[in-house]
Amino acid sequence: MTARVESSPQGGSRTAAVMNPRSAGGRTGRTWNRIRTELEAVCGPVTLFATEAPGHGIRLTADAIRSGFSRILAVGGDGTLSEVVNGVMSVASGSETEVGLIPQGTGSDFRRTLGLPLDRAEAIRTIRDGRIVRIDLMRVAYTARDGAPATRYAMNLTSFGMGGLVASRANRSSKPLGGTVTFLWATALTALGYRGDRVSIELDGVTIPDVRITNVAVGNGQYHGSGMWICPGAAIDDGLLDVTLVEKLSLWRLLTGSRYLFNGRISDHPKVRGFRTSNFAARTLEGASAIEIDGEPVGYLPIRIEIVPGALRMIVP
Q: For residue 170, which phi and psi values (nearest 5 degrees)?
């Protein structure tokens, strides 16, 4: 992570925590009092905004900024952080808001790209001792589940094809064995009945008119699916999107090639193509193709993604 350093966290910042009590199988809610005590020892007073339903964190974040909070801490997984990011971007005054992460989710993939430790005590110390950097975001226009056009900001990764189906299956699970096992299980079950999606893709105006895919990942961050290293060359401050296109694979080739998902060498696979672009679009040529944004299944193709350089002030180690 090489993002440009802008400043150090401000000791006098008013701090709000947007917390998902259901993250990590409910452990975050059960241990919140302890988390709060540890946070206040290094940050001073922290005001809690607890989410009650999907999407609630967006409104809570916007309300907190309008109320004068200049530092927002996402306490949860990538889904919680994504809602905080969208709340920040929904408020004009949010451009100077400091955003921090206390990773408590099952996957917590974006913290890997940030170099943020999973250990809670170390993550909390980062809020006090870390740097504030400007990071890019992705503006994603897509088709929501009800068929209406929708727009959302993504800080980590958007994918479609098998990725959208796997995210939906994994999110329905209670994840009793942790994130990595859950996503591998969901991937294997999804692969059993997946026949590939026919799509057309456009990258900075250049079209790939007809390709049958297993998955396409568009990354600002590098990881998804609880550690799958799908966009190993992505950088959060280069003003570009990294695209990993996985052509249709047989079930056997998918299973035997699974090591490429974790070793940072996915581009070595003969069925994988990589691209770098500032604008991305895709549409389906038959049927529906499910998409996920920052690990959340949200809708279907068509999709259009553009990079928004330096859009968010993030606290990092």
A: -65, -40
pLDDT score of 288: 86
User: Percentage of the chain with pLDDT > 90?
Assistant: 63
Same structural domain, 119 and 260: no
Report how far apart, in Å, the C-alpha atoms of 210 and of each of 165, 200, 275, 288 are. 21, 5, 16, 15
Count Cβ neighbours within 10 Å for each residue of 143-165 and write b for 16 or more, e otherwise.
Answer: beeeeeeeebbbbbbbbbbbbbb
Q: Each residue of 82-122: pLDDT tens digit?
A: 999 999 999 977 789 999 999 986 668 999 999 998 888 99
Share of the chain above pLDDT 70, in %: 85
Q: Are 170 and 186 within 8 A, CB to CB? A: yes
Neighbours of 10 (CB within 10 A): 12
Q: 186 and 127: one domain?
A: no
Both 159 and 119 in one domain: the answer is no
Residue 184: which pLDDT band, with cuts at 50, 70 and 90?
low
The amino acid present at 229, given as its one-letter code, is W
Q: How far apart are CA 224 and CA 231, in angstroms?
A: 9
Identify which has the larger pLDDT, 2 or 25: 25
The residue ranking higher by pLDDT, 117 or 47, is: 47
Question: Is 31 exposed, middle or buried (CB count within 10 Å of its CB: 0-12, 13-18, 19+)?
Answer: middle
Picking from 83, 108, 135, the residue at the C-terminal end of a domain is 135
Residue 205 tokens, joined = 């105006």
